[in-house]
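Hi everyone,

Forwarding the result from last night's run.
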Amino acid sequence: MFEEFDGPLVHVADRDIYEGATDLIDHFGTAADIEAAARADACREQGNIYLFARWRQIERLIPVLVSEEAIGTLH
């Protein structure tokens, strides 16, 4: 499974970022973050900075979503 999350909290810009991350987790399982990184790299190579940034946000969100520990403040 995924490594334990130990990074900073992640900003979710909009619902599309969340849905993109959950879709990758559903389709790629433990390799979801690797797939997001590959997609970000491909967008960067094509010069599409908007999609590059989107895929990087998704890449950072995936470990948060798959972590079994509580992250951040609990209310």
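Residues 15-66 form one domain.

Cheers,
N.
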